[in-house]
From TrEMBL:
Protein name (record): Integrase catalytic domain-containing protein
Record domain Integrase catalytic: where: 35-100
Organism whose genome encodes this protein: Lentzea cavernae
Pfam family for this entry, one: rve_3
InterPro entries: Integrase_cat-core, RNaseH-like_sf, RNaseH_sf
Length: 135
């Protein structure tokens, strides 16, 4: 589900999870009662869910562990802002320090290094910071 559409009602039909012992059978029963089918990842396939786990780890470490969420509307707003930050600004090692939805910046020439100005933009009340060169 795209977080841009989070204002509309969405029906969750599936929960994909690993086989970790942290999830008791009661959770599957509760989810089943709500019409959500639990799908387990493959046996001895630790990388099967790795991309999503990495995203959740980043989300927790950079936002949720530092923010007091007041209600569902505030949570949706914070997730939307983090999604924009993650895709449009935050650097990614696998993309050579570019963001997924932004091209890699050109290196500064020696003539511009002496007069570089950096602007900072705070998001979510200063929890996230974005930096860019001034024009």
């Amino acid at each position: 589900m795209d977080l841009e559409d989070a204002g509309s009602l969405a029906q969750v039909r599936f929960l994909i999870r690993d086989r970790d012992g942290k999830y008791p059978a009661l959770i599957d029963e509760i989810l089943g009662g709500a019409g959500i089918a639990t799908i387990l990842t493959g046996v001895r396939m630790p990388r099967m869910n790795a991309i999503m786990k990495r995203w959740v780890k980043s989300l927790r470490g950079e936002l949720l562990d530092r923010t007091l969420i007041w209600n569902e509307a505030h949570l949706r707003h914070a997730l939307r802002e983090y999604e924009r930050h993650y895709n449009q600004h935050r650097t990614h090692r696998s993309l050579a320090a570019a963001a997924p939805m932004r091209a890699l910046h050109q290196a500064l020439g020696p003539d511009r290094i002496e007069r570089v100005e950096v602007l900072r933009r705070d998001r979510l009340g200063g929890v996230l910071h974005e930096y860019r060169h001034a024009a």
